[in-house]
Amino acid sequence: MLKCNFKNHIMNLKEKISLEEVKGKQFRNRIVEPECNKEAVLTHYLHNSKNGVSQFYKKDALDFTVEILQNKYPEETITNLVAEEALQYGIFDTFSVPFPPTENPKFKFIDLFAGIGGFRLALQNLGGKCVFTSEWDKEAKKTYKANFGETPFGDITKEETKAYIPDGFDLLCAGFPCQAFSIAGKRGGFEDTRGTLFFDVAEIIKRKKPKAIFLENVKGLRNHNGGKTLATILNVLRNDLGYFVPEPQIINAKEFGVPQNRERIYIVGFRQDLGIETFEYPKPLEKKVSFSQVKEKVVPPTKYFLSTQYVQTLLNHKARHESKGNGFGFAIIPDDGISNAIVVGGMGRERNLVLDHRITDFTPTTHIKGEVNREGIRKMTPREWARLQGFPDNYLIPVADASAYKQFGNSVAVPAIQATANKIIELIGVKQK
After folding, report:
1. Active-site residue, 4 included
2. I want to staple 93 with a disulfide (CB 3.0 to 4.6 A). Which of 16, 155, 272, 294 is the partner?
3. Gap between the Cα atoms of 128 and 109, Å rounded
4. Residue closest to 30 by CA, chosen among 61, 72, 59
C-alpha cells in the first residue's frame, strides 16, 4: 500500500533526480548495466508522455523507475503506482538542455544511426518531434543526451531494440553506413541485403510503413560495387517496400550556407498510397560563404596552434605524397576560402588546418614563441567543425576534442538536411513551421 509520507515527499519534491546521479557510484552496479536500454526507455517515455507514444515505453520505464526509487529510498515501499506518480510529478530532470522536445509538434519522426543529432536538429527546427532514436557509439550518446536530454537506444540490428520503435510516425531518417551486398540472386532484392545495416533500415520501413523516408550516405555510394549497391537499395525501396523514390541527388553543404565542400547522396521516398509522383530537391541558396564566417575569434595558442617542427613535418609529408601522385590529408584554408569535407583521418588526426595570422594579437611568452610556428598555422577547433556542419553555438560539446572531431566529422550538414526535409514535409501534408 502507498505510504502517505512518501507520497507527500514526491508531491513536494523540489530537488529532482538527475540521470547522472542514477549513473553515480551509489546505483551503477545495480541498475545501469553496460549496453542496457533502460535509460533510453526512461528518457523516451518522459519525452513522449504527452503525445500518446509513451505507451511503447511505459512498462519498462516504470520498472526502471521502481529500481531507481528503491535504491534512493530503501526504507520505503515502492510500487508501480508510486513510480507512476513520481514520473507524473516530474521527479527526473531531463529537460534542462539546449534542445528540449518540440511542443505541439506538427509531425513525428525517428532518427536511426543518429550520431550526435544532426537530423534531429534539422527536423526539430521544422516543428517535428523525435519519437525514437538509436546510436551505438558511447561517446556520441553522451553528446546526444547533453543536448537533447534523451539517451539513444543501442544496436539497431538487435530485435530487442527494434521492438521499442513506436507505430504511427511520419518520417524515417537514417544516415546508414555504406556496405557491400552479397547479391545471391540476379534480382538484388530485400533478402540479398541481409547482414547489412541497410537491411535493418529496410526491415523497419517494412514493419512500420512511414509516410516518407530520408536516407543519407557518402557520395561514393553512387558508384559503390560498380553501382550494384545503390541499384539494390533502390530496387528494395521501390519494388519490395512500395515507395516512390525519385532519382537520388548529390547535395553539397556549401550550397546551403556553410563553408564546407561536403557532397553527400540523399535518397528520399514516399509511400505509394500517398499518390506522390514527383519530388524536387531544394535549390542551392544564392549565398556566398567563407571560412571567416565560422572562424573563432579567440583560440588558445598553446592548444591549437602547431609547432614549427610539426608544420614542417606535415609539409614535407605532403610534398612526398604529391610527388608520387597521391593526395595527403590536410589543407591550409584562408579566411575567404572554404573547408574540404571534414573527416577524421587515420589515428584520429584532424585533416583540416587553417591559416591564422592572429598569433601576433597575443602577447605570447618566450615559451609559447618557442612552440608556435611564426605563420600562425593551427588546426581547427571543435567549435569550428560544429559550425562547418551548421550546428548552432549553443550546441554543447561535452566530450574531449578527439571525440568531438570524430562526431562532427561523421555528422550531417544540418542546413542541407533541413532544406531537403522541408520539401518532404510539404508533400506529406504536414504544415511547415
Report:
1. no
2. 16
3. 7
4. 72
Q: Is 52 left (phi over 0), alpha (psi -120 to 50) or beta?
A: left
Residue 335: CB atoms within 10 Å: 14
**Contact in structure between 194 and 153 (CB atoms under 8 Å):** no
Nearest CA to 255 among 336, 338, 329?
338
d(CA 364, CA 159): 57
Q: Are 317 and 376 in contact (CB under 8 A)?
A: no
Residues 140, 407 contacting (CB under 8 angstroms): yes
Q: How far apart are CA 397 and CA 422, in angstroms?
A: 27
Q: Where are the alpha helices (DSSP H) in 271-353?
A: 301-304, 308-323
- Its pTM stands at 0.87
pLDDT mean for each 10 residues of the chain (433 residues): 52 61 56 68 90 90 90 84 85 83 92 97 97 95 95 94 96 85 59 82 97 94 86 93 97 96 96 96 91 89 80 80 68 85 53 45 33 72 95 97 92 97 91 43
> In degrees, to the nearest 5, what angle opens at C-alpha 175 toward C-alphas 265 and 249?
15
Q: What is the rounded distance in angstroms from the CA atom of residue 95 to the CA atom of residue 83?
A: 19
**Active-site entry in 36, 130, 173, 178:** 178
Report how far apart, in Å, the C-alpha atoms of 25 and of each of 28, 30, 32, 183, 332 are.
5, 10, 11, 49, 46
Give the angle 144-148-153 at the CA atoms, nearest 5°. Answer: 55
State which amino acid sits at residue 322: E
